[in-house]
Amino acid sequence: MKTIKVLGPGCRNCQTTAQLIEEVAKAKGIDIELEKVEAIPEIIRYGVMSTPGVVIDDQVVHAGGVPDRKKVEGWLG
User: Per-residue pLDDT tens for 15-69?
Assistant: First the structure.
């Protein structure tokens, strides 16, 4: 199971990113643990200055703007 965090203050782009990740995981039959991180100090701890950010298994894979579906599919193999 992959642990995925969406970093951001809860803005529309952050919500869209989280929803896209959930949709792709479901379509691929992959179990994920999705967490939304809205605390600014924790977001900064990951070095993300532009949200939404995406962290998979403690590795930052994206920052700033909604990722496209193909990118998300690549993350989830």
Answer: 999 999 999 999 999 999 999 999 999 999 999 999 999 999 999 999 999 999 9
Long-range pairs for 14-20 at CB < 8 Å and ≥24 separation?
14/51, 14/52, 16/66, 17/52, 17/54, 17/66, 17/67, 18/52, 20/66, 20/67, 20/69, 20/72
**CA–CA separation, 42 vs 38, rounded Å?**
8
Domains of the chain from N-terminus onward: 2-75 (3.40.30.10)
Give the C-alpha separation, 38 to 70, whole Å.
25
